[in-house]
Structures are given as structure tokens and as C-alpha cells.
Write a structure and sequence with these properties.
With 200 residues, the protein is of the alpha+beta class. The longest helix is centred in the middle third of the chain and has 24 residues. It starts with a helix and ends with a strand.
Length: 200
């Protein structure tokens, strides 16, 4: 039972990250995780703090995969929080394994249905485009499909790219998730002020 609650918490995080339903996913994660710690029972706040910090670091690693250490530290903190709560390493691994298996299945289902990290960043990309005063207004006769450029910042999946000899920074959205700084990219689609790119 407890493992299923933990799994629902992880599913909530996955839904918040991969779909536009950020509030619903975050709510499910919060309620399920709170229920998990309630049923297990904990005498101090330390396990909950460690678990939460670990989960946040793992989410951070998803958006900034080049950082590396955040994911490792996050996993260690998450396992430590669960172990301090349960007090049994075997049950900790069982609950965590069950949760990971269930969440992996849900993630595969969401990806097959067209969801990706780009869904949660669309609003951020639109806001960046509207608030950027130094960038040119993107028009189809300026940036076109198959134009080649270079990522000036990491695309996570939103970021900035320059095209050809034009020094102007253009806000773009990667269709392939994270793309590292300095990577050559090619325009996949231009729609109004929105540019989507992929690796060359």
C-alpha cells in the first residue's frame, strides 16, 4: 500500500513535468507523498526534508542534465529520507523499486502519446519571446525552415540561438529536449514568433 502511494507521488511529478497539467500533477505528488509519510509514520521532519530535497534535485537534473552531480546527490538524499522513515533498507528498496517501475510505465505511456519536456516549457518560451526587447521579431522571411544556427545557451528545451552571420539572439524551442550550448541546430518549424529547432 505504502509503495503504491509513493508511486502515485512519482507519477504526479512525471505528469507535472511532461504535461501541461502542472498544478494537477504537483497536487497529486504532494497529497500522495504526504499520505505515504503519514502511513509509515515519522518522528522528525528530517526524513521528509531529505526526501523533498532529493526529489527537487532529481527534477533539477532532468532540466539541466549537464550538471550531473545534482541527480546523484538527489538519489542519495531521496533514499536516505525513505530509509530514515522506514528503518528497513530492504523495504526501502522494495517501495522505491515499485514506484520506479510504475512511474516508468506511465512515462512511456505519456511519451507515446506525444508528451515531452517541451510541454512544460512552452509558456516560458512564449514569455521570453514577448519580454525580449533585444531580439528581432521573427518573421518567415527572416528565419526559415532548414536555416542552420548554433545554440548560444543550452536549450532545456527553450534557449537562444544565432543564425549565420546574424549576431541577433533568437528564442527557440528544441523538439529533441535538451541540446548543449555550442551545438549546431537546424530550424524545424517557424510559426509566427515561435521557432522550433532540432540538432543538425
Amino acid at each position: 500500500m505504502e509503495g503504491l502511494l509513493l508511486g502515485l507521488g512519482f507519477i504526479g511529478v512525471a505528469v507535472a513535468i511532461l504535461t501541461p497539467y502542472l498544478k494537477s500533477g504537483a497536487g497529486l505528488a504532494l497529497i500522495s507523498t504526504a499520505a505515504y509519510f503519514h502511513f509509515i509514520g515519522t518522528e522528525t521532519w528530517l526524513p521528509i526534508v531529505l526526501f523533498t530535497a532529493g526529489l527537487l534535485l532529481i527534477v533539477f537534473e532532468i532540466f539541466v542534465p549537464e550538471f550531473g552531480a545534482a541527480g546523484i546527490i538527489g538519489i542519495v538524499l531521496l533514499i536516505s529520507g525513505l530509509y530514515l522513515t522506514i528503518g528497513d533498507f530492504g523495504q526501502t528498496i522494495r517501495d522505491l523499486s515499485l514506484s520506479v517501475v510504475i512511474t516508468t510505465g506511465v512515462i512511456i505511456y505519456l511519451i507515446k502519446n506525444g508528451y515531452s519536456l517541451s510541454n512544460v516549457n512552452k509558456l516560458i518560451l512564449q514569455t521570453n519571446m514577448q519580454s525580449s526587447n533585444n531580439n528581432k521579431t521573427v518573421e518567415k522571411d527572416i528565419i526559415q525552415v532548414d536555416d542552420e544556427g548554433v545554440a548560444v545557451t543550452p536549450l532545456r528545451p527553450s534557449g537562444k540561438v544565432t543564425f549565420g552571420d546574424d549576431p541577433t539572439l533568437y528564442d527557440v524551442l528544441s523538439t529533441e529536449g535538451h541540446i548543449s550550448k555550442g551545438t549546431a541546430v537546424i530550424v524545424d518549424k517557424v510559426k509566427g514568433t515561435k521557432i522550433t529547432v532540432r540538432k543538425k
